[in-house]
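Posted in: Protein Modeling Q&A

I'm a second-year student putting together a small comparison for a lab meeting, and my supervisor asked me to include a predicted structure for Phage protein. I've never done this before, so apologies if this is the wrong subforum. The sequence is pasted below exactly as I got it from our records. If anyone can share the structure token output, I'd also love a short note on what stands out.
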Amino acid sequence: MDINLNEIIDENELYSGCYGRVSINFYPFNQAGNKGIGCGLLNLQKLEDGEMLGGRARPEDDFADDDILG
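Accepted answer (user: helix_wrangler)
Welcome! Here is the predicted structure, written out as tokens:
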């Protein structure tokens, strides 16, 4: 959602570096001897644009090397 509670359709509107709020759900788990606390992301609200953080890569660049399989 945007600041006016309108749905954001364009996936490029949300990126690392924009300002917003999230709602999350913490929950305990105890499965097959593994105990811990999990966290689930529920909703996102974008409040404003910010400076894009570094480290973003395009999938075409990450997977362009076809020598791996051949």
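A couple of things worth pointing out for your meeting: The longest helix spans residues 59-62. The CA atoms of residues 4 and 48 lie 11 Å apart.
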